[in-house]
TrEMBL record:
<dbReference type="InterPro" id="IPR008380">
    <property type="entry name" value="HAD-SF_hydro_IG_5-nucl"/>
</dbReference>
<protein>
    <submittedName>
        <fullName>5'-nucleotidase domain containing 2</fullName>
    </submittedName>
</protein>
<dbReference type="GO" id="GO:0046872">
    <property type="term" value="F:metal ion binding"/>
</dbReference>
<keyword id="KW-0378">Hydrolase</keyword>
<dbReference type="GO" id="GO:0008253">
    <property type="term" value="F:5'-nucleotidase activity"/>
</dbReference>
<dbReference type="Pfam" id="PF05761">
    <property type="entry name" value="5_nucleotid"/>
</dbReference>
<dbReference type="InterPro" id="IPR036412">
    <property type="entry name" value="HAD-like_sf"/>
</dbReference>
<keyword id="KW-0460">Magnesium</keyword>
<comment type="similarity">
    <text>Belongs to the 5'(3')-deoxyribonucleotidase family.</text>
</comment>
<keyword id="KW-0479">Metal-binding</keyword>
<dbReference type="InterPro" id="IPR023214">
    <property type="entry name" value="HAD_sf"/>
</dbReference>
Amino acid sequence: MSCQKIRKFSHALLQKSKAASLCKVLKTSVASYGNVASKGPTNQIVKCCENGQSCESNSGIQATGSPAIPTSPSPANHRQVAGKNFKEVSPTFSERAFTTAPKIDSKIYLWSRYNEMKRLVHDLIPPGVCNLLNPSTIYANNEVDLDEVEIYGFDYDYTLALYSNTLDTMIYNTARDFLVKHYKYPEGISKYDYIPNFAARGLHYDIQKGLLMKIDAFHYIQLGTVYRGLNPVPDEEVLELYGGTNHVPLEEVSGFYGKGPVMKQFMDVFSIPEMTLLAAANDYFNSNDIEYDPGHLYKDVSVSAFPHSDKLESKDNTKYILRGDETYAVLHRLASHGKKLFLITNSPFSFVDKGMKYMVGKDWRDLFDIVIVQADKPHFFNSCGKPFRRLDSNGDLQWDKIKSLDKGQVYKQGNLFDFLRLTGWRGSKVLYFGDHLYSDLADLMLRHGWRTGAIVPELEVETRVVNTEQYAQGLTWLQALTGLLERMQMHRDPESKKVLQDWLKEREELRAVTKNLFNPHFGSIFRTCHNPTYFSRRLCRFSDVYMASISCLLNYDLSYTFYPRRTPLQHEAPLWMDQLCTGCMKTPFLEEMAHIR
């Protein structure tokens, strides 16, 4: 069905482009003819001869308005081109002098182009084309052949176990109360309830300034997404705070694992309540004009909010788990096809055991060849200091030396170097899934050559937004308007500048509307206006494939090959049909698309 929609969309695109181009040619021809006819004598309209016959003038209207008079052909005025005779007529000096084009009102011209483009954009998005994205799709950054994958590895939280939003509220309330009772923060902070959908994954926090913000892939702060507490910071103040620019130097943004000397990037889903608590505490101090050290606040909130698993252990965490039957289906399917499975998680065994029994059953360990808990990622992947320790059936630590990693046993800590030595599981035959781009995937992708799959639960919500007609129309028109600004900026007279300023204002309004469709404070986790976010760039760098949940694997055969879409670089033409339908080309050049085939 989606292929039919794409073909219809492409056909409509091509036909509309041809029609627009033909209409423009006809308008130009009529305008030129009318201009010449009104200014004085002109040559007769000539048509080409066929089959070697003599040329004759078309019946036309001379300057006097009388019918054209046939004339005898002159050999000097004929030439042979591609088997056809054409009559050449050289205009006189007086005729050339009076055939200059009339001066066009640039303001009228700009608005005519604007209206023409708006009609074109509206007509080229047929009903139904907005529902092409499936939230259960697995997206490829790199080519992956599942037929070559023999071993599947998993993180636990937000990979095997997905949680409801009520868990965020519980973590927030627990951390807020700990902050007040243990660290003796003002009681007024207890009045701040959790705000769902305030923060988003991938945001940066300026530890010294106490500012939460979104940064793009080029280290630029997206103006309009900087918050001090719960209030946005004006763009002028942001520029002043950062030395007259919204660019943050590389050494300040973050280190390899998302934390630099100045900025901290929040990369996992569990960090959303922490960001909200930071914003609430900052807001309380600012609203009550209380001096405080933002750096100490950051440390205290971090300790209060994590480790999350320790806080969940004493509670019935199973009531927060979603879609456990899908997790069981994925694991059972892989095991039944002879795939080896392993688990590496930072969570403690009692926490994992309770959740896995709820989702899979009491014999869940029979599905896994290796189970490792409290692994201390990312250090597990980049350090060889900690040895493996075995846990007995009660979860108590044993001190025997680990010479092999056996099925049915549970291991604690350890390191990847010993893991590789004891298992021999290396290279692209291993595919590991996790939700944290730094702790779960970065080292495995860059240093060890494993295949990696990122779990991005936010994809489901963002896909629903992208599939709406409001988003499709708004984004397509935003791209078209941006292209018009690019092409029409050479008009620099005062009237044209006013028009261009109106367009720039509309462009900013469209950007704000598009951002608010995802999150009114910070927008999409994948884009800052037109640029990818810092999160999005890391997602592409550290994951071969990404998806909303591991249940997406159920939609694909285990010998399926994922091919990344070839999106054109800025200097490349969109020569592929799927690019003509997915917006990966410059919409303003719709009129020229008919020639790109």
